[in-house]
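Q: I'm building a small set of examples for a reading group on sequence design. Run inverse folding on the following structure and report the sequence directly after it, with nothing in between.
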């Protein structure tokens, strides 16, 4: 077991990271934006800024920031988002210039990164109960033109993934315009919740029903899988939404789905321990983040695409599993801190490590979305704060009702998953 103080120190380190790597120049148009990562020449990330907005809530609640300071940072950041940040029909550019808040290069206008930012906006508005914060938050939520990215695909109603107007822009293949489609189960469930109150209810329900529920199995139980079996895609929506309280319209238990996917991820790593010495019962977690080869996306079975293990353990991915498998995540965290001091620094745990390469590799980098996810999951494990704020917020409650989510107490007797 690990002492609660170690988890508290990790949260403190995460808050310190967001304080150190966000723009607090009061004269800057990019006030409140947070870097993508600590690597050199990195842009600001709109998604990381959403995690930062959630960090100010946690910091205020824990007394790590004076409440007035946390509120002031939040107000100023929301002003930046509404008035200064590059967007297309309300969808933010994925990456931004830290100082000007303008689009970074020819990056895409991203739906999921916008949604991650807006999750922070929703959480902040629910926590601070401040008229200015509420007004700014509502303006940001209402500005997003969800209908713009809705289309019919294979007989289903779906969202586009991104938009890029530049022929040589990021992710553009051929003609510029829309990029990709959310046709799979992944991290995008938050998008259906955010859109539900701003589009026709029937369209909202068709969108939620429109992504595939591809299934695999682990230990005799079914898991709805994302294509690569990567851990973060089971965690990002669940960092804010308290899935333990609700079943979806079809009776799907997304909390248990994440729990099973985490167990499968761990089992997959253990099964490859003979080839990769990083992996064992207290060292697991195949996700996306830093690696010896740069940013890498790893996964585990069950998946639609056969994963390729490489020995990298995503530390934040394992920490983010705390609410789902605490008895397995806690020994991993304690062992890392005790036996691998190079995984720990000024801001708590670094992003990843890999002992299967020569020499053994320890990341010295932090990614805002990674540090943010593990921070939120620790807070949820200890207090449920973020889950309660976000899930009980008016916009999310309205969305859950429109989409047909039911509290577990409403579950029919004898009903299965």
């Amino acid at each position: 077991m690990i002492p609660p103080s170690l988890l508290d120190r990790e949260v403190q380190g995460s808050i310190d990271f967001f304080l150190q790597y966000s723009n607090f120049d009061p004269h800057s148009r990019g006030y409140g934006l947070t870097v993508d990562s600590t690597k050199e020449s990195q842009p600001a990330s709109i998604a990381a800024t959403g995690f930062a907005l959630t960090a100010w809530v946690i910091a205020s609640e824990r007394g790590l920031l004076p409440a007035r300071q946390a509120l002031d940072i939040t107000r100023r950041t929301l002003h930046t988002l509404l008035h200064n940040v590059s967007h297309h029909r309300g969808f933010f550019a994925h990456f931004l210039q830290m100082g000007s808040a303008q689009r970074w290069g020819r990056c895409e206008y991203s739906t999921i990164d916008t949604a991650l930012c807006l999750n922070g906006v929703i959480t902040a508005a629910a926590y601070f109960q401040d008229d200015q914060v509420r007004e700014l938050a509502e303006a940001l939520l209402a500005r997003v033109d969800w209908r713009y990215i809705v289309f019919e695909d294979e007989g289903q109603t779906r969202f586009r993934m991104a938009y890029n107007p530049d022929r040589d822009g990021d992710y553009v293949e051929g003609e510029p315009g829309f990029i990709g489609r959310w046709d799979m189960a992944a991290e995008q469930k938050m998008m259906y919740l955010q859109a539900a109150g701003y589009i026709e209810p029937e369209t909202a329900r068709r969108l939620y029903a429109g992504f595939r529920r591809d299934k695999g199995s682990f230990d005799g139980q079914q898991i709805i899988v994302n294509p690569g079996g990567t851990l973060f895609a089971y965690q990002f929506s669940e960092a804010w939404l308290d899935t333990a309280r609700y079943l979806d319209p079809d009776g799907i238990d997304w909390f248990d789905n994440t729990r099973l996917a985490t167990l499968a991820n761990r089992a997959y790593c253990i099964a490859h321990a003979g080839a990769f010495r990083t992996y064992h019962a207290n060292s697991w977690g195949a996700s996306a983040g830093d690696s010896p080869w740069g940013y890498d996306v790893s996964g585990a079975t069950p998946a639609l695409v056969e994963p390729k293990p490489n020995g990298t353990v995503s530390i934040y991915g394992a920490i983010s599993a705390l609410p789902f498998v605490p008895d397995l995540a806690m020994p991993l965290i304690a062992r890392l801190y005790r036996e691998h001091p190079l995984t720990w620094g000024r801001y708590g745990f670094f992003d990843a490590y890999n002992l299967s390469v020569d020499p053994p590799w320890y990341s010295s980098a932090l990614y805002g979305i990674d540090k943010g996810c593990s921070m939120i999951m620790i807070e949820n494990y200890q207090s449920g704060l973020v889950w309660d704020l976000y899930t009980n917020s008016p916009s999310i409650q309205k969305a859950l009702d429109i989409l047909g989510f039911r509290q577990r107490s409403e579950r029919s007797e004898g009903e299965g998953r």
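Residues 272 and 279 are 7 Å apart (CA to CA).
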